[in-house]
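Input record, target 12 of the design panel.
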């Protein structure tokens, strides 16, 4: 159960049997109580604190994303190498022929993915999420 400090100091003044408080001590308690209620004027503003917290969360999310992308890349690399070792040369030559036939479409999709990634970085940089 919390009791306000002002009530405690008033109770202590009234109850002189258990404890006697001098006027100087009472004034010091009242001054200390009033200063503690004001709060810290030298502390960081809430906007600044939120900005710092947002940047820390962004960095943590970026580290997690890098780990996930690395794991996915390694899994894709392993699966491609396994597929190539399992498939015969005729199927590989057919895939190369299809890729060469649709090379412009493949290049278009590759460029689109790269441009989307750069656009996302520019948008995040303008928002200030470095």
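The sequence produced for target 12 reads:
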């Amino acid at each position: 159960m919390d009791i306000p400090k002002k009530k405690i100091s008033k109770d202590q003044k009234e109850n002189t049997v258990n404890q006697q408080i001098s006027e100087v001590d009472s004034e010091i308690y009242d001054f200390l109580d009033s200063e503690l209620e004001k709060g810290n004027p030298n502390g960081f503003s809430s906007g600044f604190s939120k900005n710092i917290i947002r940047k820390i969360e962004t960095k943590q999310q970026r580290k997690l994303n890098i780990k996930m992308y690395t794991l996915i890349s390694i899994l894709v690399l392993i699966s491609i190498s396994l597929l190539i070792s399992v498939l015969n040369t005729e199927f590989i030559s057919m895939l190369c022929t299809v890729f060469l036939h649709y090379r412009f479409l493949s290049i278009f999709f590759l460029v689109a993915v790269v441009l989307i990634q750069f656009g996302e970085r520019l948008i995040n940089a303008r928002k200030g999420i470095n």
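The chain has a mean pLDDT of 78.
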